[in-house]
Design goal:
InterPro entries: F-box_SCFL_complex_component (IPR053197). By secondary structure, the chain is of the alpha/beta class. It folds into two domains: 6-173; 177-280, Methane Monooxygenase Hydroxylase, Chain G, domain 1, CATH 1.20.58. 45% of the residues lie in helices and 19% in strands. The protein is built from six helices and eleven strands. The protein has helices at residues 87-99, 110-118, 154-161, 174-211, 219-255, 259-280, and strands spanning 6-10, 16-20, 25-29, 35-39, 44-48, 54-59, 65-66, 75-80, 105-109, 135-139, 168-171. Strand 9, helix 2 and strand 10 form a beta-alpha-beta unit.
């Protein structure tokens, strides 16, 4: 249902919803909604979802504007890019956090929290709104850029955790994010390498079987087989080149990893190297 400034979503059975890349105000009437994800949608949200359990929000510079508090919301992940020099941004962050007071698991990007460290007077005399918090996680949004190490101000930490002294607190560094990213890259490359080795073995076996034909084939048959073998040889050599490239990519990725992560992948990499040597030695 459309209105002058936005639209309404009304659904009695909807349990999960993702809104992405919009700008109109949204009125949600979804009594059974459990999971809500909002990405790059700068607008005001009027939400009637009494059982909402999980909320994920991501945007560049616009803050999530909610019409009400959520009493049963337990899991929240907020990621916003904002200026550490803008006092208005600090006030908006505080307002948003106060609306999320019932959460048990809270994840925030360090760039959005950094602004509070610049205006600690805004929170220095306020109690922490989070009385049920089990875990707080803060992580950097941008991992490919060199940034100064972020230090969470004591006042900000107290504001976030003082009302839940038993909550676990995790501060993720740029290095940890990059390490996880590189581990994922290495694992995907190893899967790709395994598939390339299987394909090379298949082509090599096909090549060999084509050469083991009748003892006295006709001239036309010989010409056909020679042409097929030539094509297969080209495929095989291309495969060996690609395998060598993947091996080099994996090795370069592993050198970027901390020792603790590298050791977990090294054994698998050595096995793949040995398999590649066995498969490629008769060819090259």
């Amino acid at each position: 249902m459309m209105s002058a400034n936005g639209f309404t979503i009304c659904h009695p059975e909807l349990s999960s919803l993702t809104l992405e890349s919009g700008c109109l105000d949204v009125n949600l009437v979804v009594p059974r909604l459990k999971n809500l994800t909002i990405k790059y949608w700068p607008a005001k949200f009027l939400i009637s979802a009494p059982d909402l359990f999980s909320l994920r929000y991501r945007d560049e510079y616009d803050f999530l504007e909610l019409s009400a508090d959520f009493l049963h919301l337990e899991k929240v992940d907020i990621c916003i890019c904002c200026s550490s020099k803008d006092k208005k941004d600090a006030r908006k962050i505080i307002c948003l956090l106060q609306q999320l007071h019932s959460v048990k698991s809270l994840t925030l990007n360090s760039e959005s929290i950094k602004v509070l460290s610049s205006y600690t007077k805004l929170i220095s005399h306020q109690p922490s709104p989070f009385t049920k918090l089990n875990g707080l996680k803060i992580y950097p949004r941008y991992v490919d850029e060199k940034q100064s190490e972020f230090t969470l101000a004591t006042e900000v930490k107290k504001y976030l955790l003082d009302s839940s002294p038993d909550a676990t607190f995790t501060m993720v560094s740029h290095e940890e994010i990059i390490a996880v990213k590189n581990v994922t890259i290495a694992r995907k490359l190893m899967i790709k390498l395994g598939a390339a080795l299987d394909k090379l073995k298949e082509n090599s076996e096909t090549n060999t079987s084509d050469m083991d034909q009748d003892e006295a084939p006709s001239e036309s048959h010989i010409a056909t087989v020679e042409e097929q073998v030539e094509d297969l040889n080209e495929v095989v050599m291309t495969g060996t080149s690609r395998i060598t490239e993947i091996l080099q990519e994996i090795e370069e990725t592993l050198t970027k990893l901390p020792k603790s992560h590298r050791d977990k992948l090294q054994a698998r990499f050595y096995c793949l190297c040995a398999e590649a040597d066995t498969v490629m030695r008769p060819i090259v």
